[in-house]
Each structure stands twice: as C-alpha cells, then as structure tokens.
Write a sequence for this structure.
C-alpha cells in the first residue's frame, strides 16, 4: 500500500514510518520539521506545512493518510489558541481536501484523551461524549467532526485513534507532556526530578510500538467511521512511574516534591476494549518492560 504520514518526522510518526516500511509499504512523509527531526531514509520526504495547498500534489497516489502533524502543546494552545486552531483545524481540513482531490480511500487521525475533559468515569468508556476543556482538545474534536463531514460528503473513510499518554524511543524530553522522557533524561543525566503534589496523580501510559500497531490496523479495512481509545485502561501514579523508571535506569528513586499544579487532572485512563472489537487491537507491552526498552534506548542514544 502507498501511505502518506503527516508529522512523520515526529515521535509517534517516525516510529509509524519505520513500521510501515518494515511491513513493505511505500511511505510518503510530510512534515515541516517544526519539532520533529527523525527522517527515515527509505521514505519519500516533503518538507511542507500541512496547511500548504501543495499537499495535494504530495499525496501522489496514496491510498491512506495517517494524519499526525499537529500543534501538540496544551499550554501553547491556551496562550495562542489561534495558532493551535490554524495548525490543528485548518491543517486537518487541508489534509481532507488533499485526500478528496487525490482519491484517498481513508484518513487515520491522531486525536487525544484531552477530548474527554474531566471524564466522570475512569477508565473512560469508548462512547463517552467529548467535552473539551482546552483549545487543543477543542481543535482535536473539531478535526474529528471534519472527518465525519468528509466521509458523509465524499465517502472518504476515517478512523480516529484517541491516544492516551504515549511513551517510547524518540520522545522529546523538552515537551510538557512526555513525563517518561523527562524523568528518563533527568535520571540518566544525574539531574533532579520533580513530582507535583503528592505524586498520586494517575495517567494511562501506552508504549509507542502498540500505538503504531493500532495505526497499521486502522490503515486496513477495519474500523471505518470508528473512534477508538488507544490506551491500556491501567492507571499509573506519578510516584509509581518514577519508581519504575528509576529501577530501569538503576538509580535511586528519590524525586523532589513541589506543590500541585493548578488545573492538572487528578486521574486518567481509557477503556481500550472497543479497539479490540473494532480493530483487533490490544496493548501488547507491559509498562515495566516497555519502560526498560525506553530507558535502554535513551542510554544508547546519548
Ligand atoms: N505523544 C502523546 O502522548 C500524544 C497523545 C495524544 C495525542 N497525540 C497526537 O499524536 C500526534 C503526534 O504526536 P507526537 O507526540 O509524535 O508529537 P511530535 O511533536 O513529536 O510530532 C508532530 C510532528 O508534526 C510536525 N508538525 C507540526 N506542525 C506541523 C505543520 N504545520 N505542518 C507539518 N508538520 C507539522 C512536527 O515537526 C513533528 O514532526 C499529534 O497529533 C498529537 O496531538 C500524541
């Protein structure tokens, strides 16, 4: 299959590109390199903004587009909501226009658990309505709505993957959300780490290879019109996560403590069972062994 990956030089996108190439697909990458810098040698590469009308030419016979290019910072979406909307909403719309012009069969979209806001039930059931509480979440939900509109108007199939906290090789420790990358980088570098509040805040950590597997499944015939949670359903506290990473790194588990940050969600995890029914997907890695793989990768790439 010929598959275009937007954001293919980023953390998740570059891991996806490697997997698609290994599976024997032809891959086209579109990325403006604004944050990602991982270029696979065997993929056709276009340095392009997803909002650029030239995207339609880059599509070049692709059957599927995996759309991952985005403004990914919740904090930046609050300080500059217009830029967030331009990249995430206008960018997705331009991807759909390129898909329409290029007779693309399907678009697979990277959404976020931020779409759920403060969900009443955890793990969040798959049919929970979106309730955005940040411009980033609102732009993701808006993009999801355009996928539905283009399916209805032009028959372009789509699958939305609602990603929980993804971690693994190539995640940047510079971001706000990549806590695994932040702790790993600091612990291996002998620098202090900080837990906010009492460390009891939980998140649902899913390994990037498992996320990539969900994308490859969604590129096939299954899951059309579906929105699937891609997580483990398991909550891990900041305190426990720090202990697991310290153990994998072979260093003392002694984080500093700082006051809780206003607005941080106390808990999050999503129910992945519908993704098993719709895509045949389930997470394949347990947290401790995937953290060990990640720590070893960071150590070897230093
Ligand atoms: N990492 C997570 O835990 C997580 C969780 C939920 C959702 N997501 C979503 O998954 C996708 C990938 O995230 P990631 O963690 O790999 O982030 P990333 O920043 O590593 O990758 C995003 C890529 O998009 C590119 N990009 C940004 N703006 C662009 C533009 N205007 N035109 C072209 N390219 C552009 C960047 O250069 C980068 O390579 C995003 O859509 C993000 O919202 C990620």
């Amino acid at each position: 299959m010929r598959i275009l990956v937007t954001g293919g030089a980023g953390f998740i996108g570059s891991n996806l590109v490697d997997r698609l190439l290994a599976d024997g697909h032809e891959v086209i990458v579109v990325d403006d390199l604004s944050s990602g810098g991982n270029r696979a040698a065997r993929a056709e590469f276009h340095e392009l903004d997803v909002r650029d009308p030239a995207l339609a030419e880059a599509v070049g016979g692709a059957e599927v587009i995996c759309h991952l290019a985005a403004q990914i910072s919740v904090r930046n979406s609050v300080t500059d909501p217009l830029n967030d909307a331009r990249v995430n909403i206008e960018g997705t719309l331009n991807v759909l226009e390129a898909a329409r012009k290029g007779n693309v069969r399907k678009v697979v979209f990277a959404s976020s658990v931020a779409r759920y806001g403060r969900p009443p039930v955890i793990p969040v059931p798959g049919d929970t309505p979106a309730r955005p509480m940040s411009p980033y979440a609102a732009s993701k939900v808006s993009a999801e709505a355009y996928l539905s509109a283009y399916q209805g108007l032009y028959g372009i199939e789509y699958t939305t993957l609602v990603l929980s906290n993804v971690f693994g090789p190539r995640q940047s420790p510079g971001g706000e959300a990549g806590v695994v990358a932040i702790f790993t980088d600091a612990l291996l570098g002998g620098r202090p780490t900080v837990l906010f509040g009492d460390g009891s805040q939980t998140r649902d950590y899913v390994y990037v290879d498992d996320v990539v597997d969900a994308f490859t499944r969604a590129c096939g015939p299954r899951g059309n019109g579906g929105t699937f949670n891609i997580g483990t359903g398991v909550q891990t506290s900041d305190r426990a996560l720090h202990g697991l990473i310290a153990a994998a790194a072979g260093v003392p588990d002694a984080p500093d403590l700082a006051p809780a940050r206003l607005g941080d969600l106390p808990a999050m995890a999503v129910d992945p069972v519908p993704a098993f029914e719709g895509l045949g997907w389930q997470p394949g890695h347990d947290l401790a062994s995937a953290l060990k793989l990640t720590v070893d990768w960071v150590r070897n790439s230093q």
